[in-house]
Amino acid sequence: MRARLILVVAATTSLVLVAFLVPLALLVRTAAEDRAVTGALVQAQALAPIVATVDPAELELAVTHANEQGHYPITVFLPGSQVIGAPAARSAAVEVAASGRSLTAQAPGGREILLAVAGLSDGTAVIRTFVADAELHQGVARAWSLLGLLGLGLMLVSMLVAHQLARTITRPLTAVANVSHRLAQGDLGVRAGSTGPPEVRQVSAGLNLLAARIGALLVSERETVADLSHRLRTPLTALRIDAESLRDRDDRERITADLDAVEHTVDAIIQEARRPVRYGVVATCEAVGVVAERVRFWSALADEEQRRMAVDLASGPVPVRVGANDLAACVDALLGNVFAHTPEGCGLAIALQRRPGGGAVLIVGDDGPGLPDPRALRRGSSGAGSTGLGLDIVHRIAASSGGAVTLSRAPGGGALIAVELGTPPAGTA
Question: What is the pTM of this model?
């Protein structure tokens, strides 16, 4: 998919560059020709007043000086057959100009500029200057080379951008595929991330729901197996009573031994069914260590911005019904909002308290202006120009653990966010 997207972008960019650069290249060539012709015409026009007013001797001196100082060779065809200046053949275009019409005509190796000068007593003089092809196209090759490099650079940039955009699509898809493979291998605790385009996020969400449903069904099935196995105890007990009532000692011991083996097997089935799934359906972690590690991470930035950071963490381990990565993301989202939406030097406080009945409460407050909108927990809602996803992440993590998020104002007027984290299931704390 990535290669196809890059090829599509490359083809589209090529068409745009051709439509843009080809006319621009032609325009550059035309501008260069016009520049050269205009320069030659200006040089010829400077001699027009002299041709009509001075005698041939003075005119020859003026033309010689103009050829020495000028960039283009000048020839003056006087009425009759006299020619002054640079040697040049009397072409058909010169004859046309002698009739009183100035013109520009193609000539071998370049272009000749012909200027008709009237007012002489015996006819019309023609001032001729010649512009070689090299002069007409001077700088065109260099300009075309620059345009080609520009087009190549734009092509490379477009392909690089296409590559990066393709990665934003293919990476989440690859991650989803990897998650599906791990689920197929029995890792029911793995979950797909919520990154990528909306369609990919929908696939990830559907896969996560499927994984959760599979885990729930598996737990229910194992409990059902355990319950059914437990029901066998009643008939086994009745059989044991009947066996113990047998008069034949050998038969009684043999049947009792068989019953012991059956009960042993039933107990093993119950224990196996009640054993947690290999990779665990519910993620848990020890909250104090995770929060302390993220606080240490953010404290460097707090010191740099001269923010007072008050930290109050519960003593001893505090297990919660949240994975370590999710809890770290929750802390990062809360502290990131403080650093992003409060001015430098604004203080903040982080506290982690045990919740009555188990779990914990994570509290983050600041001395800033407070939350601009009480609907900040809504996904994509932000009053400060951000994406509005941070508090939504916090809300979803709290909800998945069986807790909630409360928004209020700190004593100093800033924002105060309390995140309740649920209690781990029995036997996982």
Answer: 0.41
